[in-house]
Amino acid sequence: MGGTVSALAAILDLSIASNVTDSALAYFLTADIFLLLCIGVYLILPRMEYASYYLNLIEARPDSSDDEGSEEKVDTSSSKTNSPPILPILKRVKVLAACLFYTFFISIIIFPTIAASIESVDKSSGSVWTNKFFTPITCFLVYNFADWSGRQITTWIQSPGPNSKILPTLVFLRTLFIPLFMFCNYQPRKHIYLVIFQSDVYPIIFITLMGLSNGYLGTLSMVYGPKVVPKELSEGTAIVMSFFLGLGLAIGAAFSSLVHLI
Hints:
Growth Hormone, Chain: A, 2 domains, single chain, 10 helices, mainly alpha
């Protein structure tokens, strides 16, 4: 959702701001406003009946002062500091971790390196849409909104299941997005000069499908991870899955630089 708000802010800025100074001031004031809102909500929260109930519940929890209780506390704290058993977790979630990694690996290769470099086929017309708003809307706004929508869909629909072979198949098929985007009006082109998709509709369709699939398949993989392991390993599994998500983004970002050689 944050990406969608940022994209809308950028489009609004392009429409209204007359110079860079006004844009910088607008973004700075926006950040200040949100900071003030967060501080206000933070101060109001303890006064709310719902929050007060749970805050008082924590404060009213009795402290065990006996030796047995203290030993249990020590054992609990020490167990929390232990690192999760990586190998047993990976054995159970290796497919889901690979799906999560590859989902974000493909997405970060394309977005924004390739997607933001796709120009309107009618750019020579000189219209405001093709020269000023095409990339902010078709790339950043559409992708971020589609990604957010894909994540929200998992609230109601969670299919295919964690053990289904369809999930890794769908994740792998996202590789096709790379040539699909490259055969749009991607500029500049160094070696491949063929533009197959001679319409602005195609990159919009592709970026929508990529955003939806990124949000949906990525969230499914992330949600399924802690569910396929014993309850005591769920927290460690979430950490492992987060690592593979970050790894996919990092390696994908490194590979995205190779796109400019095409």
